[in-house]
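Quick start: what a row looks like.
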Amino acid sequence: MSPPTEESRCPNCGSLPGSDTTCVRCGHPLGAPDTLTPWEEELWELVARQDRSWFDLQEPDGLEFPDSKHTRRIELVGDHVSIGRRSKSRNSLPEIDLSGTLEDPCVSHHHAVLMRRPDGGWALVDQDSTNGTFVNADEEQIAPNEPLTLSDGDQVHVGRWTTLTIERVDPPDPRHSDQVSRPSVDTRNVVRGKRALEIDLLGPLRVRVRNEEVLIGASHKRAVLSLLALRVGTPVTADQLQWALWGDGETRTAATALRGYIKDLRKVVPEDVIKSVPEQGYRLDVHKDCIDVSRFERRCERGRRLLSSGHPGSAVALLDRALELWRGEPLVDLVAGPMGAGVAVGLAERKATAEEDRFEALLQLGEHRAIVADLLVAVEAEPLRERRWGQLMLALYRRGQQAEALRAFHRLYQMLKDEVGVEPSHELMDLERAIANNLPELAWVAPSQTGTVATPAV
């Protein structure tokens, strides 16, 4: 059997995927459109070398600088890249191994971790190493278990003579294509020009035909197209369309009016897109990716899988791209009818869940200092959603604001008691007790070598 090639490995975590569709280790979808991991756009390498100037600066006693100098260039792939010295007895198998030819005895076995940021860059976390980690010319070592964002060319000093330089490299030239087009924000590696029709429902209805926006005049026509788009690829009966438009107030001319709306819509959208299905009604016959709701739901699901498999950086990137599809209140032309309100509520729930998944990923990335303001806005927007209250409490606690975290809990407790007549969930009450008792497991820690992140569930 031939060894696996780089092309056969998962682009997200670098492991053998074990499936044709999804990596069994990290949940990354394989071969799907609209999927680029951040490191396919942001390519970075680390240059590890034995640095005489760093050695001389420390004036170490009892150690001699190595006679032969070695340099190694390492491509940074995945969400987490550990730095240390290999030791089976200590369960240390770092991706950047400073043993062997690069042996530095003053590097801890579990020294530091590089974490991929949602923007494709990297942050450095010292794992409470024995001799510390230094960046550039700073004489103070970086704080342990606090992520520090790195820039192109930054030098990381570890051990007694090791310097690691992080470098952003230019990606290879794209392959020649007759359909060269700059990928859009929404579709990344799917050239927008290939889509004959795009329908956006997460806000006022927006319809584009071959990249040109077209107007759908009457509200009932917009409602018909919206419902067909929501059920893209599936027939919608005439009775269902009439019920969505008129409900119990359906008129005798409803069937005739519906046929007129369909006829007018067919003049606007590409030919054969709205098909009549005998005895089943009408079907919008386009790829699901042509509908923003479909792209939103798929990105949310992929982001959730990446989060649960310990890849918070790429989870944030994907959830950001899901949430950026929202332009306002969804299904504006359907909500007045008997079917639209329930669908809109469901979409709003999925949006709120995606926002909370994103907060969870940012907490796992150690961004608790940065997200408190956004969490305060989030709990005000939807004060009965307990998960975001728990995330706010944890972020405040990790910022050193224990009293504020406890006040947040008691505010929620009183509000639930007064407005709903219930108490917070057991999980939230357990979190409140843990914060009150300063339990050490609440502290943020960097991702482990296995790609998981230790964080309490909230």
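That is the whole record. Confidence is low (pLDDT under 50) at residues 1-7, 31-36, 174-193, 449-458. Residues 88 and 109 are 10 Å apart (CA to CA).
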